[in-house]
Amino acid sequence: MASTTSDTRSRRLRFIRHYIEMIIAMFAGMILLGMLRHAAGLGFSHERDPELAYLLMAFDMSVGMAAWMRFRGHGWAPTLEMCGAMFAPALPLFPLLWLDIVDGESLMVLAHVAMFPLMLVAMLWRRDEYTGHVH
After folding, report:
1. Backbone region of residue 93 per phi and psi (left: phi > 0; alpha: psi in -120 to 50; beta: other values)
2. HEC per residue, 44-84
3. How far apart are CA 116 and CA 50, in angstroms?
């Protein structure tokens, strides 16, 4: 029985660790690639170009997460699902932006808030991938 409890705890800790790693990788990609783009003079304002700014930010976060997941031995399917969580908030939020219900800054805030539970859903979809995967 102690072995089962220990195994359950270990799997739960692996799941939590992966979630935290994805958040760190997501922000690392966003910061590093964003800084490179800005240094190259290719920065986009979320006030002036909110759709483009959001999509580029989602791309930057996806690159960071995908690089880390592939480094850690995850397959393409779970990697792309996790990246999809970065782009998915655009589906309901862009129309709200176009209807002037939200502005560019609100779009960014709401999208970031939505990404965290969407990442969790992607992980729960493949629970065994994230609780049993050997890193």
Report:
1. alpha
2. CCCCCCHHHHHHHHHHHHHHHHHHHHHHCCCCHHHHHHHHH
3. 20
pLDDT, tens digit only, all 135 positions of the chain = 555 788 888 888 989 999 999 999 999 999 999 899 888 888 777 778 899 989 999 999 999 999 999 999 899 999 999 999 999 999 999 999 999 999 999 999 999 999 999 999 999 998 888 887 554
d(CA 9, CA 121): 20
- Contact predicate 29/61, CB 8 Å: yes
Cα dihedral angle (59, 124, 17, 132), rounded to 10 degrees?
Answer: -120
Residues in CB range of 107: below 8 A, 6 or more apart: 46, 50, 54, 93, 94, 96, 97
